[in-house]
Here is the input.
Amino acid sequence: MMRVQDIYSKLMEEHKEVEKIMKEIDSTTERGVKTRENLFMELREHIVPHMKSEEKVLYPVLLEHKELKELTFEGFEEHDVAIGLLRQLDLTPKSSEKWHAKFSVFMENVLHHVDEEENQLFPKARKVVDGDVSKKLSESYEKEEERQKNSLIRRFERKVRAAV
Ligand SMILES: [Fe+2]
Ligand SMILES: [Fe+2]
Here is the structure.
């Protein structure tokens, strides 16, 4: 039988990927606008479906446990801050000096959030939601993420069509 990952390992793998892309973006300059744009698009394709699927699949289950409530609500708020900053980054010209400053704030926020999930929320969640349940959640997460990725791509295509 195929080994199904628990949801926490799956999410932590994705965190690593996001961190890698953010580090690459962090080292781009105003002169490498095309690289910056491409990496930013790649980042968005990873991070947006990740956050939305966490919110749809994992967070509601965690909210059922009162000892996890506060950290989970904090997670929702940190996602909102990240989404807001992503929008600003999208609207700010990648060639401007401001862009990198905004990106640094965004990256700090995301790294803080990832640290809180991996070192506080997930270890506590594992104590109450583990084993077969966390494997089932992992499967639902993957399905939801696929759906989120497709809808992100469709939105992007509509934006491109509207621009030509
Ligand atoms: Fe996460
Ligand atoms: Fe998260």
